[in-house]
């Protein structure tokens, strides 16, 4: 592993070493929660931190142009919001105009962010149509301009990308190009845009990518993303590929809110449902501050907490029919009572 280029990222690298030592690893990789649209806001980040915190968080990805736009800037307030009690997340921005990154990163700095990540991997067709996300893989010159513009505010700048747009072997030109841009961290989702998440992540290219880093930019941290469900799997990947600096977990968090815990333990139903209750409370606080949000979006989180026990499917069905957080709380309370009665009858 290498030394980070900035104090911010070196602190994350150092924090990772505070976890229990792992046989076969001289230095532990840092773990992060991936930036996910309508998922990794201040509410969910605090829930994950309560369950088992990663070494670093990212915000939802945010349109850099919207940050400074006189009308649109009000729509991004919630995306970039974090509370003092939180570990300061890394702001992730997307876009296609250098001026937007120059102004947007400066705004992020004023808000208290200490690092910014540029999204060059999002596969969404609307984002690509607007010149951002994985569309930048086809426009390296523009990608370099965005990185240079983002650096003007003085914050550490990193990039998250994919192996290519349509072709896998694109990474043999694209990754070296990015490494030459003097970025702090390069996070690589080990699939192309065309592959989306429909095929297994290409772990077979990790060693080749690490060799590129060592030859071109030995001080750039490499973070791997794709098909890594929890900390244990990430550690095994790091053992198999010495030189990995960081592991990013995305969809794995939907299989367990405890994905980042050092030692897997069997959690009770109450553990999971209490996290859901916490999210409901924080959701209501967020709504009160930033205006009503779409309640339907909250339902995507129910499966995280309601799984792996008897009657889980029945409870999920009931929760999906709710129309407010108060209705969710009432169903949870009714379920608690019924669950206790069933356990009591079973013991009699």
What features would you describe in this structure?
This protein is α/β, with parallel strands linked by helices and about 350 residues long. It folds into two domains: about 5-255, TIM Barrel (Alpha-Beta Barrel), CATH 3.20.20.70; about 270-345, no CATH class. About 45% of the residues lie in helices and about 15% in strands. It has helices at about 5-15, 40-50, 65-70, 100-110, 125-130, 140-150, 170-180, 205-215, 230-240, 270-290, 295-300, 300-305, 310-320, 325-345; strands at about 30-35, 55-65, 90-95, 115-120, 155-165, 185-190, 220-225, 245-250. The chain has an eight-stranded parallel beta barrel, surrounded by six helices. Helix 9 links the parallel strand 7 (about 220-225) and strand 8. Helix 2 packs antiparallel against helix 10, helix 7 packs parallel to helix 8 and helix 10 (about 270-290) runs antiparallel to helix 14. The termini are far apart. The model has no long low-confidence stretch (mean pLDDT about 95).
